[in-house]
Every structure is written in structure tokens, then in C-alpha cells.
Amino acid sequence: MKKHFLIALCLLGTAGLWGQSNCRLQDQVPLQLMSRELKRNFRILKKQKPPIYYLAYTYKQQKEQALSVAYDGVASRQEQTGAALEVQARAGSPRLDNTHALRGEGERWRLPIAAAPEASAQEPQAFTAALWRLTQTAAEQAQQDWGRVAANVRSMAQGKDLSDDFVFPPQSLYCREEPIQEIDLKEIEPLLLNASKLASGKGYVLSSSFSFSAQQGHRYFVDSRGTRLKTPYAYLRLMYEVAGRGQDGLEISRSKIYDVSSVAQLPTPRQLQADVERSLQELQQLSVAEEGEADSAPTLLKNYAAAVFVHEVMGHRLEATRFKSADDGQTLAGKVGQQVIPPLITITADPTMKTWNGVPLRGHYEYDDEGVQARPVVLIENGVLKNFLMQSSPVRGFAHSNGHGRKELGHRAEARMSVIRAQAARTVPYAELEKMLLTEIKRQGKPYGYIVEDLGGGYTLTGTFLPQSFKLETKLVYKVYPDGRKEAVRGLDVVGTPLASFNKILAAADDEEVFNGSCGALSGWVPQSNMAPSFLFESLEMQKSEKSNYKPPVLPAPAAKEETK
């Protein structure tokens, strides 16, 4: 994964069907101070040469908690609160500004940020002074970048997409808050400690980690168009990993992540221990499994792995920001209205979805990081390309944002995924899909096929300087023989090119599953969710994984001495 409003003024505010304002903008001190300072600064900056024609402030108040357990003991426990400010300044004009993609030069995706003092109505000076300093820095940086852009445009060949650099987002007024959950890490500690003991004494486990983290807070956003937002967020994560290494240096691991929005949604002790035990069994199986060979064969990607596949292989190519760069391969540019994947598949993006089948969706949000209200978007319908993920930077044929301008604090926004869902028009029970795999193996006369249960990290290449390809690490894959026998193999990566691979999907099961995570790109790490059913492919290509140069340690772990005598 690469290597995410004053309700009283209801003439302008729209709460949407999936979220309701529960606070008043005029009562929010940070918004009052930010609005006042923005108005004062913008009145001056818009008269400069080049002018700052758009200004936006973001303020985040956050409480962070983290607990880590290793080797049956608490490794670290951290709790802190803080706040940060960010200023975005656009110099020039919407037609051509400092964010313009520079041909032949690297992008400058960073925005000035600073730790923020308390936004106090009684003593506002420290807060407004921090905003003033940051605004000055942002304006100078934007004007310098605009100079580079102007010089670049004069000297370099024109790109194909001559769309404006920016379209003003609509004005939004919205205020919603949630109380910060009181989380006692000491109550979560036994859950992790008891689960971690299951990995103790296993000779095939070289390392294990169990952790919990929580980021909760509110985001305040104001801009020179009059948008005023306050929105809450809560990202809680419990995760574990057990890892080992083969005699040939190949690293193996099994892990699981539980992304939730409240403590009540965390796994129960019984559920967590059952999952850890399953992961340990799989790790032991991998520790004695044979290394796979490079090959191409019929392959079944189980739902979780299929969701990772959709994210990496197709999702990134639907992010329209990339089309502005002449260095991007633009796999799907110019293909709107054309069939690009099998008619069986429809792909949508819907950040308004908060849960699915009771599973919290990490990619849910109410307004994107440019202040645009989230909305559902049909990207590919029955295999036909319909739309792209859009931010407030138009591309040819798509003039407005659809609420997918996203970023990590301190980065410029770009079009990024949210809650991506791949659905099949026709499905069969999963057991039937496995039978179809066996039939396809026999039809092709292959000695075996594959069932990929878990895909880990990987990458997808979108630039013109390298082939438009992808590589995804298999974490758990089985070789399947025509008679139905299965055996685990290790050391394989799924590789291929996006359109050729996607168009080999033959059928899908009725077993959609969620893959929650965070994705990193030019605009930083943003939370995302992906959903897909199991897919049967006519064939997928496997290649050998990279290995480490180290063998397993000679000394057994202390708790493993008895079983390794």
C-alpha cells in the first residue's frame, strides 16, 4: 500500500441526510478567531503581486493515546493532547497558480504548519499571532512557487490537460461535535497482554507486537470564500502481528487490524484470542511451507485480498489529480464512457457510509480537507468508466470537486480514495467459486491454481518513467490442485498490469469484506476503507518475493527453550 457552520444560518448550511449539526458556529472560539484573522490578512494579501487569491486555515485539536505490548510486557504507554494550525495560500489566479503541476520538476506538496496555542476568547493574542506568522510564511512560499510555475510554463511544452488549477469550492456552513471518549489504557492493557501470551513459547515466532492507538478530536476549517466548518473525528485501532523467518531468509508474518470508532467496538477477549490463535496456526504452517515458483495460473482472490487488489490496482488510477502531471501514465484518462473492466463489476466511492454490516468504515468523513461536502460517486458502472475522484482542481471534462480532496495536515490536498466498494452484478456462494476455480484449472490444463487469502503491502506504478504495473505481497497463499488439495506456499508476490489483470475476472462470490487502513501518497497518510467480494481470475502472475540476507537466530527465545530442546 502506498508504501488517508452555523446551523442557524440554514439558508447556506446543508447537514445532509447522514449527519446533523448539533452546535452553533458563533459559539466556536477557534472559528471566530480564525475568521477574524483570515479576513484581516486576506484583505491585504489579495492586493499583492502576485495576489493571494484564496486563503484557508485549518486548526486541529487532538488527543492521542497509545499502548504497546511486546514479549508479554508493556513496552510503552503514551497519552498527550495538542493542537496544530495549517495555512493554505494560493497565489496567482484560478487559471494558473502556485500549485500548477511542473513539467520536469518535483512537486512541493508541503504546507506550513505549527503547534498551536489555546484558542482563548479571553486571551486570543497567542493564537492570532501564531496565525499571523504562519500566514506570512504561507503567502511568501506561495508567491515564490508561483514564480517558479510562471517560468516553467513559459519554457516547457504544454501538457494535454489545460484545465484551470483551481475551482472555488462552494460555501459550506456546518458545525458538529462529539465528546472525546474517555479511554483508560489500563483497562485495555489486560486485553493485549493476555492475547500476547499466546505467542510466547512458540519457536517459529521470532517477534510479536500487540498495540492500541486512538486519535480523537475536532477539525476547524475556514476559507476566504466564507466556509466555516467544525467536524469531529475518532480513529481507534487495535492491531497485532506475529512474525518469523525461514531458513532461506524469507520473512513471514500474520497480522490483524481492528479499526473502530469507539471502545465498545473493539474485539472481545474471546474474539481476539481466537484470531491470534488462528494467526499463529497460519504462521506455523508458513514456517514449514515450500517456497513458491514464478508462474501464471488461475487464481481466486478472497474478499479481503480482493479489496486490497481493487485499492492498489484500480483505485489509484481513478484519482484525477494525477492527470495534471505529464509524468503520470494516465491509464484511464480519455476513457470515460468506455468499458475498461468486465461488465460484471461496478466500483463506487461513498465517504458518507459510516458502517457496513456493522463494521466501522475508517474512510468515512463529512467534509473533505478542502471544505467540500462528501458525496457518493459512481466511478465505474458495469465495467464502463463514468467518473473520477475529484478535488477542487478540475481536469478535462470534470469541472468541480466531488468531495475527495484529502490530505494529511501539512500537505496539499489531492484527489484520494475514501470508501471504495467493488460490487458484482452476479454472484455465487464462495464454495461454488472454489469449484469454479478447480474447473478453470482443469480447462487450462494447469497442474495447480492459487487461492490468495491475504495481501499485504505493495505498490502500483503510475508514472511514465516505469511500466504501468503493480506488485502486491502475498501474506497467505495456497496452491490448489485439480483434485481440491491445498498446500500453503510462501515467498510469492502478485504482479501484473492493471487493465490486463482486472479484465481477467471471471466470477465473484457473495461474500463482501472490508479492508480498513491508511494510504500514503503525495498528500500524506489518509484513512481509507475498501470493500470487495472474492474474485476468480482466469490467471494472475506470481513472482518470487524479496528475501532478507539473514537466517533465523541460532539462540531460541527464552520462553521457547523447552520446546526446542
Ordered list of secondary-structure elements with their pairings:
Layout: H1 29-45, E1 52-70, E2 73-91, E3 113-115, H2 125-155, E4 173-175, H3 185-196, E5 207-223, E6 228-245, E7 251-260, H4 269-287, E8 290-291, E9 295-301, H5 303-314, E10 345-349, E11 355-356, E12 359-360, E13 377-381, E14 384-385, E15 405-406, E16 414-415, E17 419-424, H6 430-444, E18 449-460, E19 470-480, E20 486-490, E21 492-496, H7 498-502, E22 505-508, E23 513-521, E24 524-532, E25 535-544
Parallel strand pairs: 4-6, 8-20, 9-18, 17-24
Antiparallel strand pairs: 1-2, 1-5, 2-3, 5-6, 6-7, 9-25, 10-13, 10-17, 11-12, 13-14, 15-16, 18-19, 19-20, 19-21, 21-25, 22-25, 23-24
Structural notes for this entry:
Helices cover 20% and strands 33% of the residues. Helix 3 packs parallel to helix 4 (269-287). Strands 1, 2, 3, 4, 5, 6 and 7 form a seven-stranded mixed β-sheet that branches. The chain has a six-stranded mixed β-sheet with strand order 14-13-10-17-24-23. A hairpin with a 5-residue loop joins strand 19 (470-480) and strand 20. It is of the alpha+beta class and 565 residues long.
* Count of individual helical segments: 7
Spatial separation of the terminal alpha carbons: 40 Å
Structural class: alpha+beta
Q: What average pLDDT do the residues reach?
A: 90
Please state the CA-atom Rg, rounded to the nearest Å.
25 Å
Largest sheet: 7 strands, mixed
Uncertain residue ranges:
1-18, 561-565
Helical residue percent? Answer: 10-25%
Number of strands: 25
Shape: globular
Q: Quote the beta fraction.
A: 25-35%
